[in-house]
Amino acid sequence: MSVISALTLSPRKRRCGLLFRVHPRNIKSDEVVAFLQGLLRHLRGPIVLVWDRGLIHRGKAVKTYLAHRRKVQEEWFPAYAPELNPAEYVWAQSKKKLANGCPHGTTELNLMVQASLANIDSSQKLLRSCFIASTLFQLKELHSINYA
């Protein structure tokens, strides 16, 4: 099982979000393109897409798809710097919630993963903590955001 996600921060509404899809197998570039298509339908305005240097993010299908999307600006995390990526803290929170689970098969595991991520997505406090934990996002603007 693999999960693809996007941790979002709206500059106007100052709200965080988590979009994700669970896949039964390893994610390939085609799944990344499909996820990006959904992401771009969901998000308005210009997007700064910051991601790690995984091969699936640099695949031909992804490059071709993004080449025609003017509203998307790509930025890359430095190699071997997971501490800069706020999404890594989403995974840490999710794994902590799943640590003592004992699913009886992949269907139950899928439901547990989705519930864990949905729980994180429902909490502005948890999402904001992912940005704050990241050394990349130690910005005054994030600390001054008032979340309900």
Strand content: 15-25%
CATH superfamily: Ribonuclease H-like superfamily/Ribonuclease H
Shape: globular
Order of helix and strand elements from N to C terminus? EEHEHEHHHH
Tell me roughly what share of residues is in helical segments. 40-55%
Averaged pLDDT:
86
Distance between the termini: 33 Å
Radius of gyration: 16 Å
CATH class: Alpha Beta
Main sheet attributes: strand count, strand direction, barrel closure: 2 strands, antiparallel
Q: Can you put this structure into words, describing what you see?
A:
- With 148 residues, the protein is α+β, with helices and mostly antiparallel strands.
- It has a single domain (2-143), classed as Ribonuclease H-like superfamily/Ribonuclease H (Nucleotidyltransferase, domain 5, 2-Layer Sandwich), CATH 3.30.420.
- It is built from six helices and four strands, in the order E-E-H-E-H-E-H-H-H-H.
- The protein has helices spanning 29-42, 60-67, 86-98, 106-121, 124-133, 140-143; strands at 2-9, 16-23, 47-51, 72-76.
- A two-stranded antiparallel ribbon has the order 1-2. Strands 3-4 form a two-stranded parallel ribbon.
- Helix 1 (29-42) runs parallel beside helix 2 (60-67) and helix 3 packs across helix 5 (124-133).
- The longest helix is centred in the last third of the chain and has 16 residues, at 106-121.
- The radius of gyration is 16 Å and the shape is globular.
